[in-house]
Amino acid sequence: MNIAKSAITALIADDEEGPREQLRAALQRLWPELQIVAASEHGVDAWDDFLAHEPQVCFLDIRMPGLNGIEVARRMAATASPPQVVFVTAFGDHALSAFDAGAVDYVMKPVDDARLGQAIERLKARLQKDGGSGPDLNALLKQLLPAVAAPKPKPIQASLGREIKLIAPEDVIFFESDNRYTRVVFDGGDALIRTPLKELLTTLDTELFWQVHRSVLVNSRHIASAVRVDENSMHITLKGREEKLPVSRQFQGLFKGQ
User: What is 173-185 written as a DSSP string?
Assistant: First the structure.
């Protein structure tokens, strides 16, 4: 890809409107050719917006509800096209010392034009140098975000007529976005719930439930195989079932073989 002739795309994420808009204005002033494709209001939206737009650069506030900026960056780093990440943080944040020692760039709130300008120049250099692939951030991000225990599973409450059925998460085979609802397919049937798929992401065990597409979460115990259809397309098959679930390009790295 010729970066020089292509518009660089960016996502900014901050749960506070004031800092978010200040950063947007500063970027438009200092990097007018940058195309801001999403301004996310919290971490869950930032992750979903990243999957929808696949920006090359992400400015992530560290402290956001749902998923914090470091959690979002870790998810991004595991995809097929990880973006360049710049963290936006407040003075005194515990992560600053780790950032200073590592390869992760950051800017402080309120954003200073001179400091942001330096970060922009480094971003441009990296984008020109390697076409946008960022440094391997996983090791540093793991230091900043130690492994935590899987969330205690709570039953999925699904309305079936007059009945509210409680479905144990481990009994769910897959979740699938269905317009305004999320379809829950489980041993014994399926149901629609109002909780968006992107919000379920924060409540489920990520070791058990794998996101394989922006609209699909699947219980890894029920995956039978991954089938590459062509250079760009892949789907998975399920044990004892006929459904074929799509695997988007960003998540095909989950299935590497041995």
Answer: EEEEEETTEEEEE
